Structures are given as structure tokens and as C-alpha cells.
């Protein structure tokens, strides 16, 4: 993707800090806020990333550790569900990680949803622009199955791209697990995935739903990072975006994501 | 429903199929048709095709996904008969002129090496009795105007079966995760939809077991060598002249098919 048309910053430094504090408050105290473009209709995607990077600066200053990134809105199902037409990225920290098969509290989330993703762990630095799918595969240490628990801080899960980018791509929690595999031992696009909630199948798809190949989403992420003046360091954990549509969860729900060749990832939600 | 009416509607469907035209939904003409009546009408329609020279080579299972079951207001699949005139092989071009209002579905086909006699058949029996599985397309078609079908209409119309295409890559279900295998459907080089085996009754083997048991109650055995289309794992794809479809089952392989000509509707 190109952000040429939307690279222009329209927000002042003061506005960026103000919106960042608004998002940070909603994230840490788990309440919904109106989408940011209601107040700043001219807000661009570049403005959204400026707010997101300010949010990251504050989290890191508070002692959080960045573990990687996530690509979002990478499948046609997700873009349709959310009414946007370009993917986005968000950062991941250690505070968002939850162990496989654990109880995940919902009291500090607004309206969580779960989606199945293929996650990549890198062993070489990746730098855009011009990063390709093959560059990503060459730089990959291993892939593993993951579930992302997204949680838009915007009322009714209704947003536009600048707002969702500012809200760190709706990132909230993530669970990696299952069986790590080398990419050369797999045909990633045809890997099947099933999401089960409380024993019932609620979503199913193949990984090709993510831009034709999950590594394509990682390449796109690296190229967006380049536009933000960053690279993807070796050792990063990167989620390639929801293969299935996002499924709402609440306390009492139990979720299993089952992946062809990659095993499964399970969790349950509590108050 | 009396035998005269069964024959009347079976013959009407046979004539519509032969002449590539549609008829009004049967339920509009006859609101009291039961599911059992619908299967008797299907039998009559297929008897006519067999009398005209075709043979029965297998079965298809339909209405296997929850969205389609919800749409039709039913809680179980349905089935139809595969005949020798419906078979295409991978690489063939399908003549749309032989069809009325076709749509394609990507599926997994089973070929049996042992008879399966229901009732009492489980998914484990299905795997045991399976010779191999294949990626395949079913081209569904409806002899009912504008696809305005309810469950009785589609069952009577041989579960809306048109023709089918078998891939060439044989898979052993003991070496393949047919439940979690992904299904990628491409139309003219672009991804059209993706799916997974579990979308079919939890697993395609469950759908085949359901059919073995359903046929068993009717006293019909499942015979070695028969082909069973286990149910759609993709969205329905409308097809027109020049279209090319490829479906790929994760860990198994692909089936490719082209379309030429114009369908009737």
C-alpha cells in the first residue's frame, strides 16, 4: 500500500498528545470513546500513526517491553466487517501477552473479539521499502498459531482508519502457542483454521484469506514501518492478521483455535 | 402424496432437465409436499435418467453448512444421486450450454474401497472404508426458476446437482487432516473464497457417515467404488463463458476447470 495521499500530518503536537492521552485512558481503564475523527474530521492515517507512536513512547517509558508488531485488517472478511479498505499495523508489548490455556480477564477490556492468525518470529532484520513476501520467508525463524484478542476502544466497534490506527489497531491481548514450524515445511496459503467457541465451530477459513499469503501481510507491515522511519528487528514476534472474522467473547466463554499442521491455541475468559 | 403425483413431478423435473428450462417451485404448486415425498420425486426423476441410458455412479451430500441449513430452515443435510452423464475430469472444459443456472462449489470427494452399510456407521468407519479422497468441484444447477428453492424443492430436484469435476491428486485420509485442511478457491487467478473441512458437519467424514446411515434406513447400501461429494467448503461461485476455477485442498492438491458457452438462464 502507499500512504502518499495520507502521509501529511494535520495535527499539532498538542493535539497528538491530547488524543494519545484520550486513547491511553480508554485502553487502561477499559471504556469506550467516540472515534477520534468525530472531533478531528480532517485527521489522516499519518496522524493516526503519530498518536500510536506517542502511545508506544509512553508505554515504553512506563517500563513495557515491545515484543513485535501486528498487521490488521488484512483479510477481505475483516475489511468488509470493519468498512475499511487498507490494512493497518499496531505494536505489541509484553503486557498484552497471555499464556496458552490461561484464564483471560475481561474486566479490563471493553468489547473483546477473538481472531485466528499465523504469527511469525524473525531471525534477521527486515527493512522496507520494497520488502517482499520472499524476503519475509527468508528472514523467518519459525511460524506458530496465535489468537489475537482485539478490543476497539471506540463505541460500538465503529471506526475509520485514522481512528483505529491511533488506537493501536485495536490491539489488546494475544496468545501464541501450538506447534512452532519452519515455513519451508508448510504450504501457508492452504493451511486451514477453525475457531471454536464453547465447543461450537464459529468460524473457518484458509490462511490465503490474508492477502493471498500471510507473509504478504508481514511484507506490507515492514513497508509501512519504513514509511514511519523504522525497521523490523530480528527476534520480532509478528502477527499477520485475522484469517477468520472476529468473534465476540465474554466472561465464561472458552475458545480454541485449531490450525492444520500447527496444532491449537486455547484460552478461557473470566470476569 | 399419491404415486401419480410423485410421477408427475418427477417427470416434470426430468423434462425440465432435458430441455434446459426451469419450472415453478414445486411447493408453490403443491404446498403439502413432505421431505419423504421429495425424495420419492427425486427417485422418479433419476429413474427416468437411468432409463434413458445413464447409470448411478455415486452420491452427493448437500446443505452441509450451518448458514445454508439456517437459510433453508433445516437441521440436517440432504443428498442426491450422481449419474454417469454428470462426470467431468480435471482439465476438461464444461459446456455451459448443458446447464441452466449453474454455480460452482469446491468440495472433497470420497471414493470407497468397501461397502458401507448403515445404520450404525461412524466417521471412523468412513475413513476405514475410504480408498482415497480428491479435490473436486460440484457445479450445482437448479431446474427451479431463479433458484427459489425450499428444502423439498431442492431434494426433489436431485439436491440441485448439475455436473461435477474430479481432481487427479489422490489423498489417503489416514495421512491427511481432512477436518482442518484449508480450501482455497480461485476464480480467474484471484482468490474468491477460503474455507476449511470442518465447515462440513464438523468434518467431511461426518457428512459421509450421515449419508451412509440415512441410506441405510432406506435399505440402500453404499457400494465400493462409488464417488461421494461430501459438501461445499466454499462460497457459491456463478460461472460464465471463459471463467477458470481452481480449488486447492491444503496438504492434498488442486482441481482446475474451465467453462465455455452460455447457460440457459
Label this structure with key terms.
heterodimer, A: 271 residues, alpha+beta, seven-stranded mixed β-sheet, five-stranded mixed β-sheet, 6 helices, 28% strand, globular, disordered N terminus, B: 265 residues, Fumarylacetoacetate hydrolase, domain 2, eight-stranded mixed β-sheet, 7 helices, 13 strands, 2-oxopent-4-enoate hydratase (chain B), Fumarylacetoacetase_C_sf (chain B)
Describe this structure in words.
Chain A has 271 residues and is an alpha+beta fold. Helix content of chain A is 25%, strand content 28%. Chain A contains six helices and twelve strands. In chain A, strands 1, 2, 4, 5, 6, 9 and 10 form a seven-stranded mixed β-sheet that branches. In chain A, strands 3-12-11-7-8 form a five-stranded mixed β-sheet, with no helix packed on it. Chain A starts with 12 loop residues before the first helix and ends with a strand. In chain A, 52% of the residues are buried. Chain B is of the alpha+beta class. Chain B has one domain (55-260): Fumarylacetoacetase-like, C-terminal domain (Fumarylacetoacetate hydrolase, domain 2, Alpha-Beta Complex), CATH 3.90.850. In chain B, 27% of the residues lie in helices and 31% in strands. Chain B is globular, with a radius of gyration of 17 Å. Chain B: Keywords: Lyase.
Quick recap of the structure?
Chain B: It holds the Pfam family FAA_hydrolase. Chain A is an alpha+beta fold and 271 residues long.
Largest interface, C-beta within 8 A = A-B, 20 and 20 residues
> What's the number of domains of chain B?
1
> Strand pairing plus helix content of chain B: what structural class?
alpha+beta
State which percent range the strand residues of chain B make up.
25-35%
Q: How far from one another are the termini of chain B?
A: 31 Å
